[in-house]
Amino acid sequence: MEELNIDYGVINIPPTVETLDFETDRNDVFVYGSVTIARLAKQKTHWFPGSFYGGNHLYEIYSGYYGDNLLNSNVSVQKISEKMIWEKDEIKFIKPYREAKIFTGRVFSEAEWEDFVFEAFKSPSGRITEDSWIQISKAKQTIKEARLWIVGGQIIDAGYYKFNDQAPFEMVSEDGIWFAKEMLRLFNLEEAFVMDICLTDEGWKIVEINCINSSGFYPNTNVKSIIKALNIYFST
Question: pLDDT at residue 229 above 90?
């Protein structure tokens, strides 16, 4: 931020607060950090661009546009406390729904999931409750996965975060970029957002859509390019 000569401020926000205790005379504010700050910044309706949290980022909305182009196009949503049906030796991909960062989505067996839920309910943080919502889908194998940062309908940065269990510093293949551009033509979800894509034995698919205000940077992310693009796009 300093090298780009962009004013910024750093604030600390406990995950349990319900209001953003931060005031400024400026309205041209963009927040970046935890899901908590992204969610609370939506209360500051005079900030621009502020936060893109919620809205079209929900699976129930963007799945209507992307359809079978999603890695998990057939999902179910329920409360974490509700009973789940498991087949023998089945594994499922389970992730949070709505509250994206209360735990990291991953593949679970039935025993692993039951242990996870038991420990989560005992956690003193209280972030996961019986009313927390989860998204469930069939576990699928991916060959490589990439994160794309999109501002104003343009792909600003793209980099692999999984490639044979490594994160190589190389450009995302042209067919992956082409696929992402086709998806943007189908539905440009927000003025700025993050799209994770993956290559499977059925071709390229969308892994998930993420809020740009709380999406993590990988070691190969060109952070300066993203910040510069956001600054230029929302200043014009």
Answer: yes
